[in-house]
Sequence to fold (415 residues):
Amino acid sequence: MVSSTALTSGNGAAGAAKQGKEEFELTPEEIEKFSTAFKDPQFRDLFREYMDEISDPANRARYEAELAELECERGHTIRWVRPTPQFALRTTRRASDPLPAVIRESASTVTIDSTTCYVNLASSDEIERPTSQVKKQGGKQGVAWQIPHSLTPPRPDYGEGDDAKKTCLIFDVVFHPLAFELKALEPTLISSALDSIKAKFGTTLDAKTATKLADDFKYKGVPVNTAIREPVAPAPAPTPAPAPAAAKGKGKGKSPATAAAAAKPTSAALEKLAFLADLESRAAVPPAPPVAEPDHVIVHRFDTDMQDFTNSTPSTASTPASIRPRALVVRIQLPRVTDVAEIDTSISDDATTLVVEVPKKYHKVIPLRYAVDEARASAKWVVDKKVLELVLPVVAPRVVEVVGASGATAEDHVD
Fold:
């Protein structure tokens, strides 16, 4: 039972801020002027100095400080989110969905001609940590996760591979670094990212075609720093001075209203009680150990014949029938199993793979060297050793008759 909560950054308003802004469009005359200017070495030097200036970390830090001061005057605090790449996804968007507003506004200069999309999942300490809470639902007990994350407006870029000459969309979703430490949360991070993109920008991304890119391709494009704007917290109200104590022996004690106010717990006390209750619920239900791959051994069982220990002819000793085992004995160690009914085993359609599954405890895919007969298989649970022993009869090879050029016949064994 897993849930997630999205925390979107203030950058969602950046696209809305562009509404009402005149579209920027160069005339042929202006394009000609720029082309001519870039042929001038002096202009190119000045332009290079300008690019160096805006790329200088010191200038960038000063710019961020000035922007933070401006936001403070407007009644907001600002926190810069500098994403650290974790992994990237490639998927497709639903072609019938309208493009995000920030892309539609720039439609005169940018054309999105591919349905391929990239989703960068990154981390930043500026995002709130994920939290979990033990809950019961439908008679079952599980852990509900709250996973805050920040979204940035989509941006166009060229694709990869077959889409190298087409323009696609890139989305960034940023979580706290702790969200990536628990490998079991990865599917939840992906689904939360896709759901939040649809809710925020109206773009439906196909979860079925979402593919995690290689480890050396952790981020599509250049990481973009964004800002989270939050209202400045109001100053706390001054605490009123305590009323003077009544003279001893005078009056009849506190009024009912005063007594009720004194008995009412403060917000700080309520928060403390909620925190203690959360700790108690976590202590009551220890976290389940992760699903593990159990250890196993495979033993080949043969039919013993005395002629195998005598001076048999080479042709007889080397036939497949003499070296092919009669059965495979697979012993799997399952120390965390308390009831044999928990264990589920299955054989693949081609009879060469064994799958052992114990929900929430073990999962193992075991390739088999020979095809086995599932209908004649047997199982034994060794209670004291917590070992499952499977005896899997090996399917006999098909024997075909081979006719030689001289007309002589021979037998050949085919798996």
